[in-house]
Amino acid sequence: MTSNQSNLGTRFHRVLAAHATSQLGVGLHLAAFPLLVSTLTSDPRIVAALALTASIPGLILALPIGVWVDRTHRGRLMVGSDLFCALVLITLTTFVALGDIRLWMLFVGAAAVGIAELVFGTSTFALLPALVPQAELMRANSYLSVAGQTGSGVVGPALGGLAYAAGPFLPFAVNSATYLISSTTIGSFVRHSDTRVPVDDRPARRATRRGELTAGIRHLGGDRPARTLLILSASSGLFGWMPEATLVLFAREQLRLSPTAFGLLLGVTTLGAVLGGLAAGRLARRVGLFRLLVGTYATYGLLLIPVGLTNNGWIVAGIFFLQGLPLIACAATIRSLQQTLVPAALLGRIGAVNRIVSSAVVPLSLAAGGVLAALIGYSAVWIVAGLGFLLTLLFNLPALRSLESAVEHARLPT
């Protein structure tokens, strides 16, 4: 093991292995759930409803889950959520294998897994600063993002389709196994005291239940740097997803791409994101977290604009690859700064607020992208989205200066 690897510690590498394994399982069921539901119904409304089922309950329960994470042993919550997911998937596997699966079972299963994954993700966000040195948070977050992107976005869906073709029950069986492996990996170290909830939040313990739920929101209201990070995260979701609403139409009608070429186009961005994520930690040490945040945010926005100025598929593919490079680095920088600047006892609730905002922004962005495409054309949406990124930075310059001061005060590289 190199010195750089050892800086992250054995426990982080176990979390990384568990995260990679469970995200592979997520990718499996992302492919398998729609395939299975299509054999039970051809109603597009039901198919769409199932796709939303995994996110809506978690969105509603995000704040209570954030409080739970801040009041409970975070490592054990991660183990428990993995075991719960495994139980749900084993149950679904049994019914699929017996040929007795029903639509309502898929809806219940999707909702249950979605809630458990929210618990796992929020706990991971809150636990990470206790597992790695502050200077290594950026690299740790980048590695987690790369593992998630690779597992749930590339390898998992591909294997899910192949496994489903071999036997409809198979992807669910493999998925349950990934959760069991993940829980075992994390369970090997959760007895350590620094995986427990912080104990320096006694005033909040005496607060009302409503105050517990809104503590994260109140903190954001009074902490300008933390609020700025949330604004940047929300804006990147709003403008980043906007062109995605009509991407398939843009590729087919303006770039004249075949379905195969369209799939390869999507893979190019993922490749860039993975490569950029792997290099993000090294880049952060060289230029500092604050400069990396501003640089990656501006770069991504700038690279959206030329997509709207060409109809050449090869040029767009090259731009998509370049767009991927800052993608994980920017998101990982925001998370690392939040984990550094936010009190440890509130990290679960801040993570929950992040989830609520991102879950609300994505459908709003897709809807806006569709409306804009109908009004001004597919190409113009890319230009609007790129300008949105740049204007967000411009309008938040005073707040960014306060963020830079907070980073310096925390003795982080700027």
From TrEMBL:
Q: Where are the transmembrane segments?
A: 21-40, 46-69, 81-98, 104-132, 228-250, 262-281, 288-308, 314-334, 372-395
Gene Ontology CC annotations of this record = plasma membrane
Keyword flag Ribosomal protein: no
Q: Please state where this protein is localized.
A: Cell membrane
**Gene3D superfamilies assigned:** MFS general substrate transporter like domains (1.20.1250.20)
Molecular-function GO terms, alphabetical: transmembrane transporter activity
Reply yes or no: does the keyword Lipid metabolism apply.
no
Q: Which residues form the Major facilitator superfamily (MFS) profile domain?
A: 180-414
Kindly state which keywords UniProt assigns to this record, in alphabetical order: Cell membrane, Membrane, Transmembrane, Transmembrane helix, Transport
Question: Cross-referenced PANTHER family, in alphabetical order?
Answer: INTEGRAL MEMBRANE EFFLUX PROTEIN-RELATED (PTHR23513), MAJOR FACILITATOR SUPERFAMILY ASSOCIATED DOMAIN-CONTAINING PROTEIN (PTHR23513:SF6)
Q: What protein is this chain from?
A: MFS transporter
**Organism, per UniProt?**
Nakamurella sp. A5-74
